[in-house]
TrEMBL record:
Stated name of the protein: CCHC-type domain-containing protein
InterPro entries: At4g02000-like (IPR040256)
Length: 292
């Protein structure tokens, strides 16, 4: 090993590198170590020096750096081996996020899981940043939670999603979910899937239609995937072609306990809304009219 103080000012300046005076401990390939310390973008470095017990001279270093081939715009890629321990821990883990400004503690969520949920085996709850992690002992419990997508705990909406092992925690995103929506005010002559889907598409992506249970209650019932970061519609005007008569059709979102009447977003009430009243009023003043 060599302990060297390298005279590298002229080398750095020739490649527009900021000069840093430092002492390096280099092993069998001092030039290679030095070059890769300067920049991770060097590639195809193939240098040979005569075997010697003395360190290379500054001229040898300068000559070596001049032989380096650059690959602009290419950063080093580090491939890490998978961890069996992490795979075992995360294999049956579901991510959850509270859509409510009140929030819940880990103990409250775990208590609800143990005492209220129907499950096949134990489900352990932990917390990571703004997310709850549900570690399921049974793989079928994992699939059931993912298909459920959302659940209400103590009056608070909890959104659930499968964990993607390739996505870092900074990119975890639970800003959409599928909710059942009850539609009131539609004439019984228009109780069909086509009308239900048209109304659902005004709210988001239509997922399912429940005509059987909806008709028994005199309503349309649709499942819609909505964007939780955007305002939701309270209703639309419905033109069924009844001699120009337009009806107001209202939307009621199941499992949603807190819907702001000011900004029309889920998870808080008007008293705690941060959107100015004038801004919210301007965006909510526009109503759609569905013409069949």
């Amino acid at each position: 090993f060599y302990a060297l103080t390298l005279p590298i000012r002229h080398i750095c300046s020739s490649f527009n590198f900021p000069f840093v005076s430092t002492q390096l401990t280099l092993s069998t390939s001092p030039v290679s170590s030095f070059v890769h310390l300067l920049s991770p973008k060097f590639a195809n470095l193939d240098l040979e020096f005569p075997t010697s017990s003395s360190p290379p001279s500054s001229f040898q270093f300068a000559s070596a750096v001049s032989m380096v081939q650059f690959q602009h715009g290419t950063d080093p890629i580090v491939q890490l081996p998978p961890s069996p321990k992490d795979d075992l821990l995360w294999a049956n883990t579901v991510i959850g996020k509270i859509i409510d400004d009140r929030g819940l503690s880990t103990a409250e969520v775990e208590d609800a899981v143990n005492n209220m949920w129907v499950k096949r085996a134990d489900i352990r709850v932990s917390r990571l940043k703004d997310f709850f992690l549900f570690h399921c002992s049974n793989a079928q419990d994992t699939e059931d939670l993912i298909q459920l997508e959302n659940v209400v705990i103590m009056g608070v909406l909890l959104v659930l999603k499968r964990r993607n092992p390739c996505v870092p925690t900074e990119e975890w995103c639970l800003n959409d979910t599928a909710l059942w929506v009850q539609i009131y005010g539609v004439p019984t002559t228009h109780f069909n899937s086509q009308v239900a889907i048209k109304l659902a598409e005004l709210l988001g992506q239509a997922v399912d239609v429940d005509l059987q249970h909806g008709q028994k209650r005199g309503i349309l019932r649709v499942k819609v995937r909505i964007d939780l970061d955007q305002p939701v519609l309270s209703g639309v005007y419905f033109d069924a072609g009844e001699e120009g008569k337009v009806r107001w059709v209202s939307f009621h979102y199941e499992n949603v306990c807190r819907l702001c009447k000011n900004c029309r977003r889920l998870g808080h009430l008007a008293e705690s809304c941060l959107v100015p009243v004038e801004t919210a009023r301007a965006s909510n003043s526009m109503h759609l009219c569905l013409v069949l």
